[in-house]
Amino acid sequence: MKKLVLSIGLGSYLVFGAAAGALAANRADETAGAVAIREGDNASAASRWLLFVDEPLAPETSIDQSAVTNLLAAIRRLRFIDASLYSETSAVESAVVASPGAHGEQERADMAQPYTAETDTERLRIPPMGFITGLIWGVLIAAGTVALEHYGPSIDALRISLSGNGAIAVPAMFVPLAIFWGWSWIANAYAGRSVVPMAAYTLALLIGVSLIGPTDAFFFPQSGSAQLGVNQLLAGLFQGILFVGFVAIVAAPIYWVLRSRVGTSRILIWALYLVSLAIAAFVPGFGTIVAGGLVAGVASGHAWQRQGGRTFVAIIVIVIMFLAVFGIPYVLANGLSAPR
Fold first, then answer.
1. Domain coordinates of the chain in residue numbers?
2. Which of 90, 212, 219, 260 has the largest CB neighbor count within 10 A?
């Protein structure tokens, strides 16, 4: 009895084992065939699909199997020739195939390209526009200085005279304003990366202010005839360096400090404004010019930190420079007595 049971169990094991092996081999063959179709037999699959689609729709123009195969072979040869002659084309194509999101990224880049090009164009226009703007500021300051030198009023009650040497109040007061306005505008346009445009603007401002001497010599000659020579040009250049170059040299490091993390305190900004008034009051000679450089640098950094509000900062510059040019000299000469 035991031998019979063992025989039946052994036979069942052999039968089911053989069946399981055959089933596994069948599945492996089917999987290998599917992979072969997907990876190595695309041409045949494509041709069969074309035949399947074409025959029901147009039996009279059914495609021959050999014709489709020849066509696909020709296409592969053309792709090989193209890849050999134009490697950059195949590289771009392989990059697109390798990255599923490449097409979408390229579309987004194409959509953003007009805006980027427009922004780059606007930024490229800033240096020449900055130079022209600086030159206009300088010419206006020079014209105002020459006009006040010969036609400026005198206020006896305030003991202020804007004629003659008193006309230097124009560059002393308005050059810091021009530097602040130009630097803050260019810094905002370039998001802070603006050293070269600022230098171009300052150079143009210096050239414009340097026209004070030649303009005065040409329109108001001392000898009765217009004189415009090397001496007049050198005198104008000295005035430009004094009123613009020196102010810019003082303003640049102050502006750099206030743009950094070190100078983010508002208390520091207002303290520097007060220091500029103290310099104008207690430093003889060039105190007003040094104060103008300090005010220009502080105002530029102030506008950078505020990210706007240049009009408010410009009013501060005008008030401080008015006190430095007119108010402090009056107090030093007359004390705190009211004008009569």
1. 24-98, 128-334
2. 212
